[in-house]
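INTERNAL AUDIT FORM
Audit reference: QA-55
Scope: verify that the stored structure record matches its stored sequence.
Auditor: D.O.
Record contents follow.
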Amino acid sequence: MGWSTSPANVHLTGGGTCTITASQGGDTNYLAAVDVTRSFSIAKASQTITFASLPDMTYGDADVALSATASSGLDVTFTAQDDCTVSGTTLHITGAGTCTVTASQVGSDDYNPAPDVQRTFQIAKDSQTITFAALSDKTYGDADFPLSASSNKGL
């Protein structure tokens, strides 16, 4: 046989276009062959987000650190709506009611955007106590007297 091939493996390093050139430099009996170039497209990979459910909370609870991961390893961002806000990865409760947090990953040159993942939870009202001193007995006709009571939440 007067020919042979050298198997080669192609390692894909990202989405886009790949161009491969085959060359044969010739030898003492043959001239160099004309290079042959072939190109093909590499589609972006899909990705998913893993974002655990969030527990119900109570108004006044401490801020919570959010955590989610994308199968691509790219950074996940968060947004919030209703009775909460997000700054970076920190969730802050702004009132009693409902909170919905959305985890997103917009994609890159190599990955398509991941489908958003939403987590909704309830925010209960915080409890409070009233401080109200005991009142002394009075007699009909006594002068008006002041009352004072306070809430431990400043209401």
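Auditor finding: record pair retrieved intact. Residues 27 and 33 are 10 Å apart (CA to CA).
Action required: none
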